[in-house]
Amino acid sequence: MNFNFTEEQEMLKAAFAEFAKEEIAPNAAKWDEENHTPLDLMPKMGEMGILGVFVPEQYGGVGLGHTERVMALEEIARYSAGLAMMVFTHQLGMAAILDYGTEEQKMKYLPGMCAGTAICGLAVTEPGGGSDVAGQKTEAQLVDGQWVVNGRKCFITNSHCGTATVITCRTGEDEKGRSTFSCIILEAGTDGYGPGREENKLGLRGSMTGELIMNNARVPEENLVGEVGMGTPIAMKEIGEVGRASMAAIATGILRGCLEDAVKFSKERIVYGKPISRLQAIQFHIAEIRCDYEAARLMTYRAAAVKDEGKPAAAEFSMAKYFATEAACSASKRLIEIMGGYGVVNEYAAGRYHRDALGCISSGGTSEIQKIIVAGDTLKKY
Amino acid sequence: MRIIVLVKPVPDPEKYNELRIDPETKRLVREGVQTVINPTDKNALEAALVLRDGRIAAGEDSSVTVLSMAPEFSRDKLVECLAMGADDAYMLSDVAFGGADTYATSYVLAEGVKKIAAEKGENFDLILAGNESADGATAHVPVQLAEWLGITHISRVCSLEAEGETLRAVKRSEDVLLTFEGEGQAVFAVTRDINKPRFISAMGIVKARKKPLSIWTNEELGLDESAIGLEGSPTQPGRLITPELGRAGRPLLADEDATAEDAAKAIRALLGKEGF
After folding, report:
1. Which of B76, B200, B209 is facing A15, going by the closest CB pair?
2. What pTM does this model have?
3. Using alpha carbons only, what angle is made at residue A367 by residues A362 and A373, rounded to the nearest 5 degrees?
């Protein structure tokens, strides 16, 4: 067993960290305050190889794995969880095309998405369904060689900036009368398809979240991803192994921000003539944050390593997502406590970390959904 | 255009508080301290890559070779240079090179340059380097290297352009900018304001796997050991002094109505008393 990154991975981590420190850190607070999505950074991240780090070279990617993808997300989320949210949702849609798309679809969409000149997403959630898959109402019917799509998706990241989004639609029912779903790519600019309301979120600001509305939107039959009726397994696999991995990585990045800021602040803040870092009450908080960060990191990277080995990793990612997001909530609260009055002043990042951490809970399934998945896996294995 | 870039791994300037000096040898203890590519060497590499890419875009052949004299544990810094875009790298690494001052260092590097040219069967056109290292900061090595090679050198270069065979370098000197134009082999020592080094990309790191990186010991260079390392270094460190950094204000003038001129006189008198 070896817990170290390879020399190449260390170099990648340093390269991603340098990029994040120079291009993201100075702007993160502003993006949060103005709820601004830095779309101009996408081509730069494409050039860095961040967006397509897990995509094979023939489709414009770097040809590495999910460990490296998670690494990049942690570095981005260290400074801006909102931007990391946008990046991962882009990768979530890309993963669906990569894993289930036709060769033509991969060649058509992935190079631009790796370069950051096209933006992807995966839209499942609806007012009446999300984790409740069967509650989805969006429907697609095959008419004269075209999919005619009608419905409304909500809480969709990249809703207002996506150029091609993979959307789950009801396309039929099985022998027991249960709805079956398929994944279909809808491109921006298609008649009858476009964004609706954009949400004003508590946290993860800087990523666009909102509705996608389909009103007799017609797309070619070949926009189907995978087979008819395979929509639910495709969405569940990608959300389970790419989406939750990403949320775990983002929460790990927030945890590192909490840890670094807690150490810096407590060493600089002088009370009664000495830095507060010498007070045990503060040290206990710092120790808790450190333990949370290390545990989240281990769980997240282990799950990514399992996926890179080609093994099923949904339960591992659920555990990592559940632990890391809850830990980020408590660590950011601890940071606010360490900082006292400064902790609630928006000039400092502590409040943003807390809002972002809370935002991570619902993305990719709440903590309760993760526990149901973990329990199911545990009852099978033990 | 064949370009050689000199690179030095230095202790991370952000970790200077972790540095210590061996009281016996009076040398920096480098073991266990995270190293980075000397910041201005990255500027030199960026300038070289821009010149190379300009030549390639014009349909010419061009390459950038990185050369470093460093302990073998710094090999990853050369891989970083390859990831940034250099075509190949050479590392001169031997305990015999250790303890060298700038004179002996530049001599070994000059011999490295000659051996690279001999290996490749073609001479270089340019050598670029950072103006000074973040640790030693003598700014000696590029100039001394040029002297060993008997070629032109310009230091403090803040702009470098190529037009055909002509190179135009702008040097910052006090308050003026001096522009030099010329042809032929030369060493340019660049400053941080020449450019902003590019980020190292994931693609660059993956490509670096396949790029050649050679490590040469003195066995390959065959240099007389009396001319290299500690023995070949005429500069020897003297006494180590830790300056007193205690600062305490003391009033010089009791009179609240004292003028700036009174203050100047008082300061002058104090300096005189202290022997200045």
Report:
1. B200
2. 0.89
3. 115
